[in-house]
Amino acid sequence: MEIVVIGLGYVGLVNAVVLAGYHHKVTGYDLNVSKIARLKQGEAVLSEPGLQELLNKNKENLIFTDSAETAIKDKEVAFVAVDTPENPDGSANLVHFYAALHQIAKFATRPMSVIIRSTVPVGTNRLAAAYLKEESPLAFNVISQPEFLSQGRAVKDMKKPYRIILGVAEGETKKTVKALYAFYTKKHVPVLYTSPESAELAKYASNNFLALKISYINEMARLAEKVGADIDEVATGMGLDPRIGKAFFKAGIGYGGSCFPKDTKALNWLADKKHTPSETLKATIKVNQEQPKLFVDKINQRFHGVLTGKKIAVLGLAFKGNTTDVRNSPAYPIIERLLSYGAEVVAYDKSAIEEFKKNIDANEHLTYSNQLLSAMKGVQAVVIANDAKEIKTLKPSDFIDAMDKPIVYDGRNLYKPLAMAKIEYHSVGRPSSR
C-alpha cells in the first residue's frame, strides 16, 4: 500500500519504519526540516533500540519529506501521529492534530483511510470524520488505533504488540485495515474491533490503570518504610497473584515521560467535564506529584534540615534510562527542591543534558556533567534518578572511591540493600543500611 505517516516522533517514526518492512511504500512527513534532513541521510534521530538497524534494512520502502503535498498526494492510507500536548487545564491540545487533518483534506487526491494514532479525547474520531467531510469532496474512512508503545522497546511493541484495537464507526469499512495488518493476524496478535469511542477510551484507561499501579505501590512503599517491611517483597507477593500481576509494581520516585502524566490529567479533565467522579485518577496524580518531593525531604532530614552548601549529585536526567526524553522527568522536581533547600547540585546524564537544560532555569548552584564518576567526585550524597545501564552497574566501590563518606539515595531501587551494606544506602520502601 501507499502510506503516509504524519508526525515522526516516537510513534510515527517507529510506525513508518516497521510498516516499510512489510513491503508497504511509506512516506514519513514532518514539519521539522532538520529532522527530515537527518532521516534522509539514514539517521534514526531517536535513540530507540533496533530502530537504526530497521531503518537501514527497510530504506528502499521509505521516503521522508517536509512537503505536505508530496507526502499526502496519491496515498491510500494516512497515519496521524502528531503530538497532542496538554493544555494548562489538563485537556489535550489538538492544534497539531487539526493541522494534520487540514493538510489531508487539502492535498488528498483519492479516497483515503485515515488512521488516528495520536492520543486524542474521546469523541475526536467522529469530529475528525465530520471535519474531513466538510473540507473535502473525497471520501475518508476514519479509524482510531490507539498506540501502546513503551520507550526503550517501541520497535518490539510495534512489531509484536500485545493487542491491536481498531475503532471503526458503524457503516465504515474494515477492509483496508484488515489488509494492512494481515501480518499481525499471521502472528496471532489479538485484533479487537470496537466503536471509535471505546478505542479512544481504552487508550486513556490503559495508561491510567498502569499509572495507578505505580502510584499505589509507591503509596505502599511509604507505609513499608514506617512498619519495617520491604516493598520489593511486598510487590513480589502481590504480583504472584495472576489477578494482580507483577508489571508496573516497581517502587520509586514516580512516573514520567510523554504519556502517563499527560494522559492521567486528560482523563481526569474529561471525567470532570462529564461530571463523573474520578477519585482514583486524582489520587494517582497527587501521589505521583508528591513522590519526588518526599524523597528529597528524606535527604533533607538526613542532613538535619541543613542542605545549604551540601554538594549532591543527581544521576540520570531523562525520565527513563538510555533515552534522551526528559519530558516530565522526576529529575526536575528533585533538582528544583534540592536547590530550594540550598544544595549545590551536579546533574549527570550521558546524553540528555542539553534537552534537560531547555526546561529548567539556569542556576549558579546547578552544574552538569556527562562523566559519571566525575559527577560523584567529592559530593556529600548521590541521588539515583533513572535506570540507565551505566548507573545500574555501579558498584559500592565506585561510591567509596568517589566520595569521602558515601551516602546514596536510590530513587529507582536499582541495587539490593544487602549488596550496598558497606555504605550508607537509602532506597524507596526498603530498609536502609547503616
The helix/strand class is alpha/beta
- Note the main sheet: 8 strands, mixed
Which stretches of 5+ consecutive residues score pLDDT under 50? none
Helix percentage: 40-55%
DSSP strand tally: 14
Count of folded domains = 2
Mean pLDDT over the residues: 95
Under the CATH scheme, which class of the largest domain?
A: Alpha Beta
User: What is the CATH architecture annotation of the largest domain?
Assistant: 3-Layer(aba) Sandwich
CATH topology label of the largest domain: Rossmann fold
Percent of residues in beta strands?
5-15%
Q: What is the CATH homology-level superfamily of the largest domain? A: NAD(P)-binding Rossmann-like Domain
Number of helices: 18
**Radius of gyration based on Cα positions:** 23 Å
> Given the C-alpha coordinates, what overall shape results?
globular
| N- to C-terminal distance | 63 Å
- Main-sheet strand order equals 3-2-1-4-5-6-7-8
Q: Which characteristics define this entry?
A:
434 residues; alpha/beta; Rossmann fold; 2 domains; eight-stranded mixed β-sheet; six-stranded parallel β-sheet; 14 strands; 42% helix; 14% strand; globular
